Amino acid sequence: MGCGQSKEGGAPATCESKANVDEQTYMFLCKVKLLKRLPKDELPALAKQATEVEFKPGQSIITQGEDGHDFFMIKKGTADVEINGKKVASLKAGDYFGENALLRNEPRNATIKANSQVITLKITRQSFMSLGLQDKLEFAKRGAVGGGAAVQAEVKPPCAKSDGDIALIKKALQSNANLNTIANLDEGRMKAMCDVMWKEEVPQGTALIKQNDLQADYFYVVQSGSFAVSKAEDTKEGQSAEDAATAQLGTVEAGGSFGELALLYFAPRAATITATEKSVVFVTARHQFKEILLKANEEETKQNLNYVGRCEVFEAALKDSEKKELAMAMLEMTFSKDETIFEQGEVGTQFFLLIEGSVNVIKDGKEVASLKATADKAPYFGEKALENKEPRAATVKVTSNTARTLFVDQDTFEAVLGSLTELVKRGKDGTTVVSKVPRKTAADTKRFGVIKFKDLKKLGLLGCGGFGAVELVEETKNGNMYALKQLSKGFVVKSGMQQSVMSEKNVQLMCDSPFVVKLYENYNSPEHLYLLLELALGGELYATYNKRNMWGNEPCAKFYVAGTVFAFEHLHSKKIVFRDLKPENLLLTDQGRVKLTDMGLAKVIFGKTYTTCGTPDYFAPELIASKGHGFAVDWWTLGVLTFELMSGHPPFESATPMQIYAKVQKGINTVTFPKKLKGDVEVMVKGLCHANPTERLPMKKGGIQNVKNQKWFSGFSWSDMESLSMKVPYAPTVKSKKDMKNFSANKEDMPPQVPYKDPKTGWDKDFATSD
Ligand code: ADE
């Protein structure tokens, strides 16, 4: 339930002419967050639909738990907001609540009770719908965070600290709840943070952090003085009461700390923090914090290196640096008792090291060996799979309750180190250069340079967000239609996203799947980079769901989740992790087929990667803990997507990112599953959103097939889905190849156009495929 407080809030007069009432109602409606997404000229007609409803003192206007159909604005009187019988806020004239009920059935999450005579203006969903307004709403995308700031922030040498300083810093770290959500701050880590901090004097009136600032790299502990936290007025207008209640406005005194979100990832600052007197702070930068957290990973790599070193094949063939690279590329897979790690006769590509538990090796039905992992012995099997694709010579079956393995597949091995056969021939002391096997890209370079920028005619705006606009363009020569994504080079450089943008282009070029939007050309102009993309005129899934109220529609959810499974299957087979699944990044074609788009955070990985990035509602716990992450984060997001499509909201939804992270860390088992999500779908979501990445369904033996075999999908034809012959559950209306009716871009969502100053690093020189 959205619930807002206007800034004026004064009680209007009660006796007015009808025309004035409409005008006053119109003024009310202009302030409502949801209705700001409507073209302004629609509001007078909506204002006419408002009716006055009176409530007596003590009467409930809406009741927690009940499905709502109406939206209310308080015209006169006051009311209490109660959650679970407890008063949490009060509302006065000018405040409003329940606007989401105009779109969908959603249980009210609070009771609102009149505590005087209250006159409200009410708009029903029926009248909202009868004006066709759901089709006219423009929905802002939820923004992704992280991934940028290629340049490390400046750090200063640590300062000397007294025992009092150390105690103050430790206490500040311990009492910062957000910091403890993102890191398990044991004594060692607290000491390490304290050790690297330096001191800065802050004159009165200095804004140490500025709202929306892109230079957001530091965390501060206040040694002395005081700071005021403030937010610009425009973010308060139309803000829901929930947001207002949780906005961290106030002061930070000695022993307090702020800026912890910057430790997690690069994102513009959410508030301004100004010294109200001469103050002193201790400071640390994000990359220092990340290095401290990464120490645990170094330990893990060292341990893996140990295991790799004990394997005779590698010991004889690999140099120390190669063994380290292999150790970093190996992933963990866990098996249960009686599961087979592989079967005799099947063609395998993976090599395994057994690091915990025991197995039997069975050949032609007879046990030929029994292997057990011990503190100083990690048995290995399947090494032949790294050299050729021969059938397995034996079956390996788990005999302990669980068995933990490290594994690597042939593609990864060859991309990281080259052919094992060659390496064995060379030997660890050899000098012959063994070349790494380049990954095959789908990109047929001959197809580039065909479509010229000068031949493209812009026909209209499809969307904005991230780094710029997406426009509908026509290749005038032949009438072919595309989507042209434009990135401001100034903004890319200012936010340190050069590497990400180049990676977006490279990753997108590797893709060739009907479930992933295709890239045709790239262009480079003095101020902008452009990606010429496959067009999908059915609209964004997020907007479609909101406009058509498709939340909870099971056939639709299955269809779109299945399409995403094929998209991920394709990306992961190319070692690409996507990292930004959300309904905003799924597009519908004119036929109603689904395609994944926006490779802005996608990356080729071997082993784990460490940059925290994604969309907060979809963050997996290992991203929040900066532990290093891999393909399993995508499967977590698939669970979140399923939950959201079926319920209308993501499972860990909260007013602020930090509150989301706190919920994510508590785990999926603490989430209340709505009725629609009970049974088989709950089982699947929980199987995908397992706290331990190695336990997520596709990460276990059986891989992606484990998702396809889920009961929720029983009766679903995966082969029809894959061959694009399945009937679509929803067919968008697309009247012509230029019909943009399914898009309603809001220019206000456009990122700032920053004038470009070439840093002369040549970062963009390989971008263009055509002129
Ligand atoms: N293809 C890639 N991005 C697109 C968008 N935003 N709209 C339509 N088609 C697209």
CATH T-level fold name of the largest domain: Transferase(Phosphotransferase), domain 1
The number of E-state strands comes to: 37
Number of domains: 4
Instruction: Output the CATH homologous superfamily of the largest domain.
Output: Transferase(Phosphotransferase) domain 1
Q: How much helix, percentage-wise, in residues? A: 25-40%
Broad structural category: alpha+beta
Q: In whole angstroms, how far apart are the ends?
A: 50 Å
Mean pLDDT: 87
Instruction: Return Rg in Å.
Output: 29 Å
- Classified by CATH, the class of the largest domain is Mainly Alpha
Enumerate the distinct ligands: adenine
CATH architecture annotation of the largest domain: Orthogonal Bundle
Characterize the main sheet: 5 strands, antiparallel
Q: Which regions have little confidence, pLDDT < 50, spanning 5+ residues?
A: 1-19, 233-248
Beta-strand content bin: 15-25%
Strand order of the largest sheet: 1-7-4-9-2
Silhouette: globular
Number of helices: 24
Binding site for ATP: 494
Enzyme class: transferase
EC number: 2.7.11.12
Domain AGC-kinase C-terminal: 714-771
